[in-house]
């Protein structure tokens, strides 16, 4: 069983508990009681410039704990001060040591739009994300049917959230384009074996429609990586490990994405 399959099993268990403990009516009420979401897509679409979605991730299945002194507010504030355009916040507890409460905490101190980075496969999670303060959610094509992708995207958009639709290969890209997506994420990490190559983004961007903003995710560590992706059509990069593992994350952001990029 791949790590993605293991995660899917865990998520189904979590959703069962969410349905039992909260129920759809309660989650809907909570979601609709929140302030209007910030425009995540607009924040990362800057003409002629590469935007940064800085990730707040304490741990990962492949690397274990990435940052022992994980202080969500101070890290989010540092990312904003360094010039990030948006934040990606891991909320998965079991595999990434995340927490839903991180979303509002990160947005409150940074003023930036926040993406709920998790493995969303059910409408209950979408309402839960909005209730928790998410401005955007991630939908992973590898975990969804085309119909599920369309339905969850439509639901999120009806709640005012941006949807980042993530693909890993050409077949998934074709599926995503059939869902009339507005923001594409290309994950350079193979979620089955966790190998990483930027070539995935370079290859898939060539097959994207003109005008579709593309976010390259994973395996981005240097200014040269960022420049390569920008020159090949990426609108933004999502970076976690290269930043969160550094003692000074503000300096790490500035080194990765200087103002002239």
Q: Which descriptors apply to this entry?
A:
261 residues, alpha/beta, TIM Barrel, 8-stranded parallel β-barrel, two-stranded antiparallel ribbon, 10 strands
What does it look like?
This protein has one domain (3-256): TIM Barrel (Alpha-Beta Barrel). 43% of the residues lie in helices and 16% in strands. It contains 12 helices and 10 strands.
Q: What is the compact description of this entry?
A:
With 261 residues, the protein is an alpha/beta fold.
Number of domains: 1
In CATH terms, what is the architecture?
Answer: Alpha-Beta Barrel
| Stretches with pLDDT under 50, minimum 5 residues | none
Order of helices and strands: HHHEEEHEHEHEHEHEHEHEHH
How far apart lie the N and C ends? Answer: 41 Å
Say what the CATH topology is. TIM Barrel
Q: What's the level 1 CATH class?
A: Alpha Beta
Q: β content, as a range?
A: 15-25%
| Structural class by SSE content | alpha/beta
Overall 3D shape: globular
Question: Topology of this protein?
Answer:
Elements: H1 3-21, H2 24-32, H3 40-44, E1 51-56, E2 59-60, E3 64-65, H4 72-82, E4 86-90, H5 102-110, E5 114-117, H6 123-131, E6 136-140, H7 146-158, E7 162-167, H8 170-177, E8 184-187, H9 199-205, E9 214-217, H10 223-231, E10 236-239, H11 241-244, H12 249-256
Parallel strand pairs: 1-4, 1-10, 4-5, 5-6, 6-7, 7-8, 8-9, 9-10
Antiparallel strand pairs: 2-3
Helix pairs in contact: 2-6, 4-5, 4-12, 6-7
């Amino acid at each position: 069983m791949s790590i993605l399959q293991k995660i899917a099993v865990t998520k189904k268990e979590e959703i069962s508990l969410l349905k039992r403990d909260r129920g759809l009516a309660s989650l809907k009420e909570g979601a609709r009681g929140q302030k209007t979401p910030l425009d995540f897509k607009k924040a990362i679409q800057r003409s002629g410039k590469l935007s940064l979605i800085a990730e707040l991730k304490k741990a990962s299945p492949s690397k274990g704990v990435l940052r022992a002194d994980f202080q969500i507010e101070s890290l989010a504030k540092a990312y904003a001060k360094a010039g990030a355009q948006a934040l990606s916040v891991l909320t998965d507890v079991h595999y990434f040591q995340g927490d839903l409460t991180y979303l509002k905490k990160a947005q409150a101190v940074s003023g930036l739009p926040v993406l709920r980075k998790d493995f969303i496969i059910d409408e209950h999670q979408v309402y839960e994300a909005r209730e928790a303060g998410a401005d955007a959610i991630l939908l992973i094509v590898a975990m969804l049917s085309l119909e599920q992708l369309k339905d969850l995207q439509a639901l999120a958009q009806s709640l005012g959230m941006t949807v980042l639709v993530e693909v890993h290969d050409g077949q998934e890209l074709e599926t995503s384009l059939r869902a009339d997506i507005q923001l594409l994420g290309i994950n350079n990490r193979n979620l089955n074996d966790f190998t990483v190559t930027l070539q995935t983004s370079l290859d898939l961007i060539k097959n994207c429609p003109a005008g579709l903003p593309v976010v390259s995710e994973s395996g981005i560590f240097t200014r040269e990586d960022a420049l390569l992706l920008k020159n090949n059509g990426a609108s933004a990069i999502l970076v976690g490990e290269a930043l969160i593992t550094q003692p000074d994350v503000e300096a790490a952001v500035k080194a990765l994405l200087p103002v002239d990029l």
